[in-house]
């Protein structure tokens, strides 16, 4: 077992099961192993191209958050990664990947063309009025306005006479 950080797409909705006194919430995510090659200037696929990882969380806020995961959502997770060897029903030796999460987040999808982005300017942006500039009597005081004090970060009056 080792610590890892992965991101993938949920293959189904999260499921919660009871295991004795503890509830276990799990979801399987597809992790893309391809990468962008700068030399070839294209995506390079690895074999296998996609690896399925079963995320699991036990009781608490991580399990509560994981229970919100729905099919197709992007999931970002950190946790204890484990590779489990098993024999399938046909007698073939296989590997299973699972992670007990210590941190999980649901990543918002990028908006498609024509859809509103939460970061885009609102439709009423044309009606927006910028705040009016404040007079010197409001906000910050004028430079050196404190009687008997000078601005310690300001330029000294005799700055032109300073030799370096």
TrEMBL record:
Region annotation Disordered: where it falls in the sequence: 112-164
Gene3D superfamilies: Nucleic acid-binding proteins
InterPro entries in the record: NA-bd_OB-fold, Primosome_PriB/ssb
Gene Ontology terms, MF aspect: single-stranded DNA binding
Biased composition (Low complexity): 117-137
Keywords: DNA-binding
The keyword tRNA-binding is assigned to this record: no
Protein name in UniProt: Single-stranded DNA-binding protein
């Amino acid at each position: 077992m080792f610590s890892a950080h992965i991101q993938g797409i949920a293959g189904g909705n999260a499921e919660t099961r009871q295991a004795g006194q503890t509830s276990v919430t799990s979801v399987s995510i597809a992790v893309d192993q391809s990468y962008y090659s700068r030399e070839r200037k294209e995506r390079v696929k690895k074999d296998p191209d996609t690896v399925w990882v079963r995320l699991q969380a036990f009781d608490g806020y991580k399990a509560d958050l994981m229970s919100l995961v729905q099919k197709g959502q992007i999931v970002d997770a950190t946790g204890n990664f484990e590779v489990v060897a098993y024999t399938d029903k046909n007698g073939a030796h296989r590997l299973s990947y699972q992670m007990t999460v210590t941190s999980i987040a649901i990543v918002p999808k990028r908006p498609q063309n024509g859809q509103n982005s939460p970061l885009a300017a609102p439709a009423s942006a044309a009606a927006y009025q910028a705040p009016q500039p404040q007079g010197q009597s409001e906000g910050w005081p004028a430079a050196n306005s404190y009687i008997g004090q000078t601005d310690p970060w300001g330029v000294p009056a005799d700055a032109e006479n300073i030799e370096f």
